[in-house]
């Protein structure tokens, strides 16, 4: 998915601080077990990421696209999935958390030491964008997420009539967020389109603060 260096100019402007034309690759501990084993990262060398968003947004689909470059069959997540994703020697420990209403009150049990929040939005689900907004601002106000950077994926861009990333950004009033670095990226988890750009933004943030 991310091994290609052929990014269009239009795509390049969506993220900042990353070199264009550089070889970009995602490995997974499953696919490259031996290589990773020899590198044996300490827990502290891994960057903790939480993947949140309402149920059916596509969080689990995104996690396994990152890991395997494949669309997996999902069912609603009860609790969480955790996987290690390696991007250009940067190790991310990604927690995909179930988004059903009854589970949202326990999202905060995952917050400590989180460096990145990936908020996944179902771009066709206009009715529930207000709930996503509430959840976003609740998270940003939480002490444990004070230092976290936020990547918003405007997912399901393949759906006819979906909201664009710009519309979602406006609705979520992202430009008002001054105390967390943020970035919005349109994507389609089924094809993988846009996912690499999101990861590149995350890697570009490492070491910035
Ligand atoms: N059309 C389309 N469908 C998608 C896309 N991403 C995910 N889906 C579908 O959306 C449904 C829900 O995806 P999940 O990844 O299970 O959603 P989730 O956010 O993990 O949901 P919870 O675990 O309940 O919080 C599945 O049928 C996916 O195949 C996308 O980009 N486009
Ligand atoms: Mg899920």
TrEMBL record:
Family named by the database record: Belongs to the small GTPase superfamily. Arf family.
UniProt protein name: ARF like GTPase 5B
Pfam families according to UniProt: Arf
Entry-linked PANTHER family: ADP RIBOSYLATION FACTOR-RELATED (PTHR11711)
UniProt-listed Gene3D superfamilies: P-loop containing nucleotide triphosphate hydrolases
Gene symbol of the encoding locus: ARL5B
InterPro entries: P-loop_NTPase, Small_GTP-bd, Small_GTPase_ARF, Small_GTPase_ARF/SAR
Keywords: GTP-binding, Nucleotide-binding
Positions in coiled-coil regions: none
Organism: Bos taurus (Bovine)
